[in-house]
């Protein structure tokens, strides 16, 4: 079978676009937001945590950039293999194409 991954697309983007995954993420985001709104103390703790995660993520990406550039060919091969695996999963598990509530 021919993989449906495009040059600019990666396997993570495809997984996040699956209805079962995207609807789960949306539900979790709504619950997280409503919890923050309902509990002001929890909101302040969450905001501190979110800023820390963003800072750590930015620092990690800055530190990894040279390594990522050198390993780009290997990442492209791994992405292609992962896309083919995802093609196979989508064929074998049709439920991946439906939101969680269905």
From TrEMBL:
Q: Which UniProt keywords apply?
A: Lipid droplet
InterPro entries hit by this protein:
Perilipin, PLIN1
* Subcellular location field: Lipid droplet
**Pfam families, per database record:** Perilipin (PF03036)
Q: Which GO terms describe its biological process?
A: lipid metabolic process
What's this protein's family per the entry? Belongs to the perilipin family.
Kindly provide the name given to this protein in its UniProt entry.
PLIN1 protein
Taxonomic lineage:
Eukaryota, Metazoa, Chordata, Craniata, Vertebrata
């Amino acid at each position: 079978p021919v993989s449906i991954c495009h040059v600019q697309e990666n396997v993570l983007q495809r997984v996040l676009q699956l209805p079962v995954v995207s609807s789960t993420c949306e539900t979790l985001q709504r619950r997280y937001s409503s919890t923050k709104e309902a509990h002001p103390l929890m909101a302040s703790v969450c905001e501190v945590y979110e800023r820390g995660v963003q800072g750590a993520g930015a620092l990690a990406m800055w530190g990894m950039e040279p390594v990522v550039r050198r390993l780009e060919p290997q990442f492209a091969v791994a992405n292609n293999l992962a896309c083919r695996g995802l093609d196979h999963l989508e064929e074998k598990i049709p439920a991946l194409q439906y939101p969680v509530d269905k």
